[in-house]
Design goal:
Strand content: 35-45%
Number of helices: 4
Order of helices and strands: HEEEEEEEHHEEEEEHEEEEEEEEEE
Radius of gyration: 45 Å
Distance between the termini: 76 Å
């Protein structure tokens, strides 16, 4: 029994030492793993993933800045170069010679009215004139013989003058029973329908000279107070800026009254050098110059990002990093904005793509046209590599 106990003691000691070594090894491995994981987190904390955004940039400039008022309107015939024709008396339409858009010459017939009404009026006026002439001769003779008082002759003379005026009016109506174009131009409106009734209060046909037109723009009363005759106007086609350039013009006059329907003020623009023939009725957009400052800091309108009650821009530094900066916006023009505070000349700001930029993002310059390099999505780090 003694020998068996002595043989087991060395085995027990070896097992105990082996178990202790194994625990120490596991503890060392756990410590190393925790250290490496902490070190990795440290690297991630000090070198966070930086978003990369593709956007266009433009420099902040200083120079002459023209403040403009934006207005929309249409092309209209110039005053004195259009006409609206109506029936001289209640009647009916018996013939229509032209349609809307037709080119007509001065004196050319447009609409013929029913002739029987005017012929009857002319015959009646002639008969009344003949009777008035006889009455006047009779009254004059009786007065000269002392039979009738002087007032009868005066009354007969007044009746004769009225009859003569009626004859002139009847003959004039007969002439106007065929509506003829008073100018060389284009039929802009045709409301006459064969057999329909015609009233003197309603125009049947309108004619305008397409070679002599103006742009009629509508502005608010507050903007109208800043616009003066002679101001330069840049015109483009459509309802928004950036349409087809139509040329430049000058403000001819500003209406002195507010339109009762649209509550706007009409500004008539004399187009001095149109790039193409303007069509009566087409929609135009005008930028009316109201003030010019010699040295103004300006940036593209695309760079402005609304923030609260104001605006901010993203300024790109020399390393290509965008920094958010609040700015104060003054006047605006067609595509530029005056910056009164927040920017300095020569700095670059994000324009196209500014709404997708975050503060401290890396900017990859891209173009806006076809074939421009496509920007990587925000957060993609491929651009950094």
């Amino acid at each position: 029994m003694t020998m068996r106990r002595n043989r087991r003691r060395p085995i027990t000691r070896l097992a105990t030492l082996g178990l202790a070594a194994l625990v120490a090894l596991i503890a060392a491995c756990g410590t190393r793993g925790n250290g490496e994981e902490g070190e990795g987190e440290g690297e991630g904390g000090s070198d966070a993933v930086q978003p990369v955004v593709g956007a266009a940039t433009a420099p902040v400039t200083v120079g002459p800045f023209t403040e403009t008022v934006a207005a929309m309107g249409s092309v209209v015939a110039r005053a004195g170069h259009s006409a609206a024709l109506a029936a001289p008396a209640p009647t009916r339409v018996s013939r229509v010679y032209v349609a809307t858009g037709a080119h007509v010459r001065r004196g050319e017939p447009l609409v013929e009215l029913e002739q029987s009404t005017f012929q009857a009026n002319a015959r009646s006026a002639d008969a009344a004139l003949a009777a008035a002439e006889q009455a006047y001769e009779r009254a004059r003779r009786l007065v000269s013989e002392g039979i009738a008082p002087r007032k009868d002759e005066e009354q007969a003379a007044a009746d004769l003058a009225r009859a003569r005026a009626d004859v002139v009016a009847a003959r004039r109506e007969a002439q106007l029973s065929v509506l003829r174009s008073p100018i060389d131009g284009v039929v802009t409106r045709m409301a006459a329908t064969l057999g329909a009734s015609a009233d003197p209060s309603q125009a049947l046909v309108e004619v305008a000279d397409p070679t002599t037109v103006d742009a009629l723009l509508a502005v608010t009363p507050s903007d109208a107070a800043r616009i003066h005759p002679g101001a330069a106007v840049t015109l483009s086609a459509g309802q928004q800026p950036g349409g087809e350039p139509l040329g430049v013009g000058r403000v001819a006059d500003v209406a002195g009254a507010v339109d009762s329907v649209s509550r706007s003020v009409a500004v008539r623009v004399r187009v001095t050098a149109p790039r193409r023939a303007l069509r009566i009725g087409e929609t135009v957009f005008g930028a009316i110059a109201v003030a010019t400052r010699a040295r103004a800091v300006s940036a593209p309108l695309e760079a402005l990002v609304p923030e609260g009650d104001g605006y901010k821009v993203f300024v790109v530094d020399s390393a290509g990093i965008a920094h958010s900066r609040a700015v104060t916006v003054g006047a605006r023009a067609d595509s530029m904005a005056e910056i009164t505070r927040g920017l300095a000349p020569g700095e670059r700001v994000v324009t196209y793509g500014a709404y997708g930029v975050q503060d401290s993002a890396r900017i990859v310059p891209v173009g806006r046209g076809r074939g421009a390099r496509r920007a990587p999505p925000a957060g993609d780090t491929e651009g950094r590599r």
